[in-house]
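Teaching soon. Got one?

===
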Amino acid sequence: METRIATLASRLFAAILIAVGSWASAPAAVPDRVSNGSDRPSRMLPLFDATPPAQALDRALHGIAASYGEASADFVALTMEYPR
């Protein structure tokens, strides 16, 4: 029984190494559209700035409330255990 467990554990570890190795060599991001093309998305994420994380989260929650309603923003805050 111990031999079977050791064999299964070693196979799982090898599978994880293969998966991580192939993931690490893959490109980080491949865009499916360019921002200045004719098929530009209607909404784009803003560029990163020096906004403190708590303010960024507040802004994101306000954006969610504007787009999807207060109940959705409250649910997101609840799932993140963020006081609202």
